[in-house]
Amino acid sequence: METEEHFDEIIPLIITFLLNSNDNYYQIAQCLISFASDFFPS
Length: 42
What we know:
This protein has helices at residues 2-19, 23-39. By secondary structure, the protein is mainly alpha-helical. The model has no long low-confidence stretch (mean pLDDT 76).
């Protein structure tokens, strides 16, 4: 689906942005990674 392709592109961008921010955002990034892994199993 087009939605999956969109998330495949946007999730790494979000993670990169968060990892370049402070530790609080890093914790949020970890949550997003876990959510993405559950929502889009590889």
